[in-house]
Amino acid sequence: MSGSLPATTVVQLERQGSRLYATINDPATRNAMTRALTDDLRAILRAVENDRSLRALVLQGANGAFCAGADLKGASRQQGEAVDAGAEDPLEASNREGGLLYAELNECPLTVIAVVDGPAFGGGFGMACCADIVIATPRARFALSETGLGIVPAQIAPFVINRIGPRHARRLGLTGARLNGEQAAAIGLADFYCPDEASLRQTLASLLNDIGRCAPGANAETKRLLRICHTMPLEEYRTVAAKSFAACARGPEGVEGVRAFAEKRPAAWVETV
C-alpha cells in the first residue's frame, strides 16, 4: 500500500524509493519541540504506518541542530496561565499529548534512523532513543537537559532507559551532562560515530542497502515482536510468535523469499541505494 505524504510546516520531506528523509528545519527555534514539530512528525508517522512501499525513515535536522529540546517560549506562556479549580492543568495535558509522539515513533513499523549532527537535547535526546539506529557526527551533542531548567524528562524516560539502561539514564538525567558523538557511541546511545561527511554517507548508504535486502513486511513484524516480547510471559509470547511466524511464512513475502533462495536470485523486494 502506498499512501500520500502529509503537508508539513517545519519538517521537509523527500522520498527516494523506499526511503523517506524527514529533515527538521526550524532555525528560529533550533529545531525545538514546538507544537508545529510535534504535529508534523505525528502526521508523518500516521501517513507511513500502513505503507509497506516504504522501509526506512531517516530523521535528521538542518542548520546544525537535530532538536534543541523543549519549546521554552511555549512552556513559559503556559506557566503563566491560571488553572481553574477541578480543571486539568494545561501543562499536564500538553505533556501527555506530546508523549504520544515518542510512543508512535518507537512503534513506527519502518526502520527509523536518526542522524544526529548537532544538539539533541531533552526531547531531541528522547527522539534519538526512539530510533532503531542512531548515527552521530562530530557536531553531535546529547543531553538530558531538563533538570537544569527545573523540569523533568517525563515522557521520554521509558525510551531513554530502554536505549541506554538505568545506570546511564540516572547519571545523565541527574547531572545534565553533555555527551559528544564519540561518548554517545561508547555507551550505546549512538550505534555509529562518523568522524566526517564521507564516513556518514558511507555508513548511511550501507545501512539502507542492508535494510533494502530485508522484506518490508517481515521487518515491520520483527520490530513489533522485539518490542512486545518482554511485556508478556514467555509461554504467552511463544504462542504470539508462532502465529506471527506462520502468517509470515505463508504470506507473499515468505513464499517469495524461500523461492528466491532456492533459485539463487535476489528476492523481488531487494533494493539498493
Report on this model:
By secondary structure, the protein is α/β, with parallel strands linked by helices. Helices cover 47% and strands 14% of the residues. The chain contains ten helices and nine strands. It has helices at residues 35-48, 72-79, 90-106, 123-130, 157-175, 181-186, 197-212, 216-228, 234-250, 252-262, and strands at residues 11-16, 19-24, 56-61, 111-116, 119-121, 133-136, 141-143, 179-180, 192-193. The strands form two sheets. It has a six-stranded mixed β-sheet, with helices on both faces. Strands 5-7-8 form a three-stranded mixed β-sheet. Strand 1 and strand 2 (19-24) form a beta hairpin. The radius of gyration is 20 Å and the shape is globular. It starts with 10 loop residues before the first strand and ends in an 11-residue tail after the last helix. The mean pLDDT is 94.
Keywords:
273 residues, alpha/beta, six-stranded mixed β-sheet, 14% strand, globular
Short synopsis of the structure:
The protein has 273 residues and is an alpha/beta fold. Helix content is 47%, strand content 14%. The model has no long low-confidence stretch (mean pLDDT 94).
Describe how the helices and strands are arranged.
Elements: E1 11-16, E2 19-24, H1 35-48, E3 56-61, H2 72-79, H3 90-106, E4 111-116, E5 119-121, H4 123-130, E6 133-136, E7 141-143, H5 157-175, E8 179-180, H6 181-186, E9 192-193, H7 197-212, H8 216-228, H9 234-250, H10 252-262
Parallel strand pairs: 2-3, 3-4, 4-6, 5-7, 6-9
Antiparallel strand pairs: 1-2, 7-8
Helix pairs in contact: 1-3, 3-4, 4-5, 8-9
